[in-house]
Amino acid sequence: MKKIRKGFTLIEMVIVLFIISLLLLIMIPNLAAQRDNATKKSEQAFKTTLVTEAGLFLENNPDKDGANVESKSKVTIEQLAKNGYITKSQVERAKKVGINETDNIFDHTEDIKIGEGKGKSMNGAS
């Protein structure tokens, strides 16, 4: 009579655990890199929102010299919040990405482009 064997041997379990650990070693660094990439893109999108709101603020409240969005006019988080262009939660988020309430928004957005394909940065450089 043949004895029916049920279950796994110790070697089979060790091999399965080894394979799972290899997969985890490969995936964990990749997940961390993806999280960092998502954070950077989220910050960039938030800065784009701030630039858009600052542009609207400048259009509605131009400087005495008629400055517009492409100039180096000073627009602060404080001004945008006070005039209803951004919410309190956006003010807090700005602090988290390194923009204080009294900082000029355009000083923190050198990498943001205005217009699609025009290649003009917020500080007027092409």
From TrEMBL:
Assigned keywords, A-Z: Competence
Pfam families hit by this protein: N_methyl
Gene Ontology CC entries for this record: cell surface
Subcellular location: Cell surface
BP GO annotations: establishment of competence for transformation
PROSITE patterns given in the database record: PROKAR_NTER_METHYL (PS00409)
InterPro entries linked to this entry: N_methyl_site, Pilin-like
NCBIfam families: IV_pilin_GFxxxE
Protein's name according to its UniProt entry: Competence protein ComGC
